[in-house]
Write a structure and sequence with these properties.
2,4-diaminopentanoate dehydrogenase C-terminal domain-containing protein; alpha/beta; 2 domains; globular; Dihydrodipicolinate Reductase, domain 2; NAD(P)-bd_dom_sf; 7-stranded parallel sheet; DAP_DH_C; 355 residues; Rossmann fold
């Protein structure tokens, strides 16, 4: 069976999900939405960095794409600085009867316990009204800290703690808005950016620890957050800007799912703009990795290294995009509503093996 798909945005993640949609034999690309007039009218292949034209031209006309009534929209538009607008976009798609796989807003990957019912219920109502499904995922939050750790726990006789970590050098991450405006790199240490405002970490990544707890039948007492920032002793050139000496260049944060005074589930990020910063903090395998630790009987540690064109940052974007696109058929066939990772069947890279 072939499913008709619209790609929504062609930015850092979107250009890679567009490539995945074009590559998958079970998907038919029928439209591409772009936010800028400069991209409008360009063939999808050009926007995806491919040579063979698709005949599908990008447009800024959202209504025209909804009128195509695709089976699914692959939504990868950035939502970090427009959360409520993004949620309204998703509700519009759902009410139109269009299934959605999305990379944001990330708290929707498992909002239960993190968001109030009055925020979740309208999304579910829109999905039920249109008879469509919404699934938000990626790599982190996403399969690096939902399916991957849950698979490891299946080999446990006893589980004492589950720790999911992202340990990355972000010096090649080409998104200045995220690096400087949202994460606060290059700013004074006492100038807290959006990401580190009270409650933001638990909103964004509390969904991770709550989903793990729900999947393993653990009722959490609370979810807490903690962070540290360290400066660079020397100037660093990152994403076309100079991060001056004495400004923030390394960030470590934890979101903890607490039970009986103990952190049973931990989501941790350790982000550096140079590998020599914060040598006392845990180090990645290679230039960057996602690490899963399941402590108990037995103890497990799984380090997932990733590279694309020699760059781990690009690989994370490809892994986010491909995961979304891989799940398009399963989301289309699922019940209407807001889906989580544990609602979907095993999804593989079927059809992607090249001779």
């Amino acid at each position: 069976m072939t499913y008709r798909v619209v790609q929504w945005s062609t930015g850092n993640v979107g250009r890679w999900s567009l490539r995945s949609v074009i590559a998958r034999p079970e998907l038919e690309l029928v439209g591409v939405w772009v936010s800028s007039a400069a991209k409008a009218g360009k063939d999808a292949a050009e926007l995806a960095g491919l040579d063979e034209p698709t005949g599908i031209l990008a447009t800024t006309d959202a209504e025209a794409l909804l009128d195509l009534k695709p089976d699914c929209i692959v939504h990868t538009a950035m939502a970090d600085d427009r959360l409520m607008e993004a949620v309204e976009d998703l509700k519009t798609f759902l009410r139109a009867g269009i299934n959605v796989v999305s990379s944001s807003p990330v708290f929707l990957q498992f909002p239960y316990g993190t968001m109030p019912a009055e925020a979740i219920d309208p999304i579910v109502a829109a999905a039920e009204e249109g008879g469509a499904s919404l699934w938000v995922n990626g790599i982190d939050p996403g399969w690096a800290n939902d399916w991957l750790p849950l698979l490891v726990t299946s080999g446990s006789e006893r589980i004492d703690q589950v720790v999911c970590s992202e340990l990355m050098d972000y010096s090649t991450y080409d998104n200045p808005k995220v690096l400087f405006d949202i994460m606060g790199f290059g700013s004074a240490l006492d100038d807290l950016p959006l990401l580190l405002q009270p409650g933001v970490l638990t909103l964004a990544w509390g969904s991770v620890v709550r989903q793990l707890a729900a999947a393993l039948d653990v009722e959490l007492d609370e979810v807490t957050q903690h962070f540290e920032r360290l400066p660079t002793p020397d100037p660093i050139e990152v994403a076309g800007r100079t991060v001056e000496a004495g400004t923030a260049a390394a960030l470590r944060f934890q979101v903890n799912g607490m039970r009986s005074g103990r952190a049973v589930f931990v989501l941790e990020h350790i982000t550096r703009l140079h590998p020599g910063l914060a040598p006392e903090w845990p180090q990645p395998t290679g230039k960057g990795c996602y690490r899963v630790e399941v402590k108990g009987e037995p103890d497990y540690q799984l380090d997932l290294q990733l590279y694309s064109g020699g760059d781990h940052a690009r690989a994370g974007l490809v892994g986010t995009a491909a995961r979304l696109v891989s799940c398009v058929p399963a989301v289309i066939e699922a019940r209407p509503g807001l889906l989580t990772a544990v609602d979907l069947p095993l999804t593989t890279g079927r059809g992607m093996v090249h001779a």
